Amino acid sequence: MTKKKIQKKLAWFLAWILAISVSFPQNAYAEAETETVAQEETSAADAVDDSIPEEQEEETVSLEGIRLSTSSLVMKTGEQKNLTATLLPENTTEQPEITWSSDDTDVVQVTGEGTSAVVTAPEGEGGTAVITVTAGDYTASCRVLVTVQEPMLESMIFMQNSSGSNRYELTEAEEGVREYTLRVPESTNVVYVRPQLRDDVQDAQITAKFTDITSGEEVSVDLPTDEVTSLTSSAGRLLKAYNIQPVELTLEVTEGSYTEVHKIHVVRGTYLGSLQITDDEGGEVAYTPTFKKTVYEYSVHVPSSRKYLQMQLKGAEKTSTVLTVNGEKSFLLNI
Question: Residue 167 forms beta bridges with which residues?
C-alpha cells in the first residue's frame, strides 16, 4: 500500500471517531451516572424503612392467681424463716398491691415487702397459725406449726465471789418466757455469773449486755460456759454498792443464726434477820414456811377474835428498807 493510501485511510478513521464523540456528549455519561446513584440511594432508603418494625401495642396479661413457695412450715420458738410469693401467670402485666397477715401473732408474725416475707415465731408457748398473702382478688395460705424451743442455756448462777459460796437469789417471772428477777443486797458491789449450756449445745456463744453504771455506755462481756466471770470489773460494771436503782441485764446465747435472749431485772434490797408475829394479847402467831432470809412470802392464819397483829423485824444488816403490807400501805423501817 502506498504512503498516500495509508494517510487517506488514517484520515477517514479519525473522522469516524470524531463523529462518535459528537453523537455522545460527556454530560450524557454524567447524567447516567447520577441517575444510577440516585436509584441506589432510593433502594437503600427503602431497605432501611423495611428493617424498622412497626410499633405494636403491648399485650395485657391478666392476673389469674398467687402461689406461695410452700404451703406449710414447722418452726421453733425464736426462729425466723422466709416465704416467697409468685404471681400467676408469671408474665402477668398487672402489678397488684401485695399484703401479708397472720391470724395469730402470738404464735407467728410476718413482715412482708412485695413478694418476699420473713416469718418469725416469737418466744412463747408455740401453737399453730396461718400466714395469708393477698394480691388483688387472689389469696394463698401457709399453715405454720410452732413448737417450743428447749433453752440452750440450762442454768445460770449469780454469786458474790468467784468460789460460789454466797449465791444471789434468781427467780423466774414465768416459766418459758426467759425473764428473771435477780435480788442483790444493796450493800454489795460485786456480781459474778456462771452460765451452763445444755450438753448437746457445742458451738454457742454467751454474751452479757448491760449499761456500765460508771460510764453510762452499753458494754458486752463474753461469758465462757461453765466458768465464773465478773460483771463488775474493768470490762464493765453492772452495779455499785448502795445504788438502789434497778438495772437491766441481758444474756444472749447465739448458735448460728439463732439467738436466745434471757432478760434479767436486777433489784437491790436487804434481807431480814428474823421475823416474829404476835397477836393483841402477846401470843406468838405461827406462819409458814419456816423463816429463811431468802424467802419473801409467808402465810399466817389469824383467828377472828384477834384485834390486830404485831410484827417484829430484825434486819440482817444495818440499812433502811420499805415494808409494804398487802400491796397498799408502806412503812419505812429503820432496822
Answer: 159
